[in-house]
Specification:
By secondary structure, the chain is α+β, with helices and mostly antiparallel strands. The chain has a single domain, classed as Nuclear Transport Factor 2, Chain: A (Roll). About 35% of the residues lie in helices and about 30% in strands. It contains 2 helices and 4 strands; from the N terminus they run ααββββ. Strands 1-2-3-4 form a 4-stranded antiparallel beta sheet, with helices on one face.
Amino acid sequence: MRFALPSLAVLCLLLLGGCAGLEENRRNSDFGLQMLSFENAMRWGNYKLAAAYIKPGHLETPIDYDAYEGLQITDYKVRNTVTSADEEQTTLDLRISYLRKGDVTVRTLDHTQVWEYEETSKRWWLMTRLPEFK
């Protein structure tokens, strides 16, 4: 019985440490789900949905959705991922293969995305523009 109090303190410390780990796992899981959703929006040509991941008020100029008309993404690969030490910013290096309707040439575009985690909204925001295809 005399070990109950120290054991309880150790158990509380382990649970608190576990909660921090759970929060980190949830944040990473949320990022993965948002990335998958963003990628699917791009692949299916829903550029307005993809643009909804950009942090509100972050863009200086509006997106010209007409520039995406007739665009078909054929491949979308994350080539490199760099996460900041505080794990609140992730940079992705992408290689996107695409073609335009009526064109038989598949082109590739290298694009860098920066995502930032916002603690108040508990979500990741895209801090860069959508890719600009030629």
